[in-house]
Design goal:
Blueprint lengths: L1 H14 L10 H20 L3 H14 L3 H13 L7 H12 L4 H13 L7 H13 L3 H11 L4 H13 L3 H19 L1
Helix pairs in contact: 1-2, 2-3, 3-4, 4-5, 4-6, 5-6, 6-7, 7-8, 8-9, 9-10
């Protein structure tokens, strides 16, 4: 609560131009960035994508935030609260992916899988999905399993199991069907 009150005071000083942002300490800049990130997350959950995008952008203006970059990438990728812009999405996701942000890695996988602003590249898609999947991202695990199904049944099953363990509903359904199919093959 103290941090929020302090951030509100700092924000009001910035708005009234009493204190320029350049005179804030790194700690104060990080606190402001975190406050705007939290506002962006709340706005997104409330369905206010315009406010969410604005808050993430402000968060990034005060301090580099991997999560704010990844979240803003998502908004640009789908045109939520901002005009759809694949170049901005790719730039933001690439920046966040350098810090192993699983969500950004998965979005880059999608970008290359479907050719959103880039040429379709299944190898790049697989590489990004694998990085995100190996960091525990359930949807990444599911998508990687989908890409691997014609290459390796063992790897496909492994990533489906991981996704299911991480709560991915569709992975659970596919895994049940796969196991039934394998049992039927053994019985016949």
């Amino acid at each position: 609560m103290i941090m929020i009150a302090k951030c509100i005071i700092i924000m009001s000083l910035l708005v009234t131009h009493v204190v320029p942002a350049t005179e804030l300490s790194n700690e104060e800049l990080r606190e402001l960035s975190a406050l705007y990130l939290d506002r962006g997350i709340k706005a997104y959950k409330d369905g206010d994508y315009n406010k969410s995008a604005e808050s993430y952008a402000k968060s990034l203006n005060y301090w580099p935030s991997v999560r704010a970059a990844g979240n803003l990438c998502n908004l640009y990728l789908y045109g939520q609260g901002v005009e759809k812009n694949y170049k901005k999405a790719i730039d933001l996701c690439t920046a966040a992916a350098k810090y192993n942000d699983p969500h950004s890695l998965i979005m880059l996988g999608e970008i290359y899988l479907f050719g959103k602003g880039v040429a379709k590249d299944l190898k790049m898609a697989e590489d990004y999905y694998r990085k995100g999947a190996d960091l525990g991202h359930a949807h990444g695990q599911f998508m990687l399993a989908s890409l691997l199904q014609k290459k390796s049944l063992t790897e496909t099953k492994y990533y489906l199991e991981k996704a299911a363990e991480n709560g991915h509903v569709e992975a659970k359904k596919v895994l049940i069907n796969l196991n039934k199919h394998q049992q039927n093959k053994v019985q016949n």
